[in-house]
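yo

u said u wanted the structure for the complex thing, so here. seqs first:
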Amino acid sequence: MTETIDDALLQADGIESGYGKVQVLWGAGLAVRPGESVVLLGANGAGKTTLLKVLVGLIPAWRGAVRLGGTDITALRTDRRVRLGLAYMSELGVFPGLTIEENLRIGGQFAERAVLRARIEELFAVFPDLAGRKRALAGALSGGQRKMLGIAKALAAGPKLLVMDEPSAGLSPLFVQQVISVLGRFRAGGVGGGAGLAMLIAEQNVAFLDLADRVYTLEGGRIRFEGTVAQLHADDALHRAYFGLA
Amino acid sequence: MLIGAIVAGVVFGLYFTLVGLGLNLVFGVMRIVNLAHGDFVMLGGYAAWWLLSAFGIHPLVAAVIVLVVFVALGMPLYYLIVPQLQRARDSEMLSLILFFGLSQMIEAVATIFLGTTERSLPGRVLGIGPIIVLGARLPKPWVFSAAVSAVAVAAVYVYLYRTRLGTLTRAVMVSRDEALATGIDVHRVSAIAFGISLALAGIAGVFAPFMLGSITPDIGVGLNITAFAVIVVGTLGNPLGTVVGGIVYGVSLMLMQTYFSSWANLLPNLLLIAVLLVRPEGLFGRQVRRA
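structre next:
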């Protein structure tokens, strides 16, 4: 059973879900505090993407509950959750057939026009590579640039919590470090002037632990570990599983 | 004669762009094939005939009435049919069967209530005498219909590329899954696209009596095949590629009617087969789905 955190921004408890008759999640749960950065580690097929999809409302929870800022959002559609401050970056992350600017405008579709304009300018300041190619199709970008656009598109929604599905997927180690560096700036509150952005990152690449305040590991649709990175290193079995033999 | 055939072909092509445009919009947004599309063209034609013969309403006004009514009809029809279809495992195949059934039903009901008598509208309501373009003498109703088609195509372009809702529509066309993940209300966007699609079919129907000579309840099937040829040539899922498809079809049709008139009716099927064999992605596209 996942620990319930009183001041959690996002709290998911006892999530069971799957596809058709195939159950993937067996009582999984997690919590993210405001401004906290949480990494969900797990191998391929562990159920990371399924859990994220339940959290953002892309597939229904068969059992369990999801709360955002104290509000039960278990039955809400994705668009309602986005309005409440939950943004999701899928593995694809962008619309390849639309321009960079259109992608950002769609990311911030619920914001007022003036607010969105200012937010997009701010994002272009953070991602200068994108700023110079506003009218370019997202599909014409390199894998790393596309990932940056995916992050920018999700941030255009002005979220309280950014949920990301494998931001390292398909990237070379160099680009992975760039993504981590950019996310680190957002975690520290380096953009927008406000408090740090809360992040939930599903990954199998342990390099993302550099960003983590806390870690969950997911195996066979169940949470096997929750704690700090130091506690993860201290657990011999988990250390071997995720970092190889010491 | 060659120039005349090409000019008439462009005019006809613009009209057939309008016939196929809505079909392509629905395919692009929903990945379903509305086999009843031609039947909505037919219903638009009967609406124009009824409005003119019963109330003396000009076809241009009839087109506006049809636009409003068909959008209002299309949106609930979407919610009634499409979300259920999309939950099915093989939604594209199921859509063929379901909309074929709907097509048959519309045709049967239309036959019961309207009969099989051919209905036509006097060309003079859209103007008398020919218009001469590059030496080709074109009937005024053809030019009028083509002009309305061009305006409708331009309106769809403005909607897709200059409005917020249009950008969201293109996003759904690019990736429905990513659209859902971004929080786009995909059903609302799709319902509006479905309504617009039926309205485009209805407006094409208003001018069908002028372009086709007359209408009967069974014209839907033939119009569907033609619309398919147009959108396959112009690229499936790319509404604006339909313009290319429509003009290629129109010019080919007029050249066939000029030089090989007895073979002209084969043209839609020939074009379909040729494009599917040689360039299945269409003349205008590199892939099946792009915005």
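The longest helix of chain A spans residues 173-187. The longest strand of chain A covers residues 22-32.
cya
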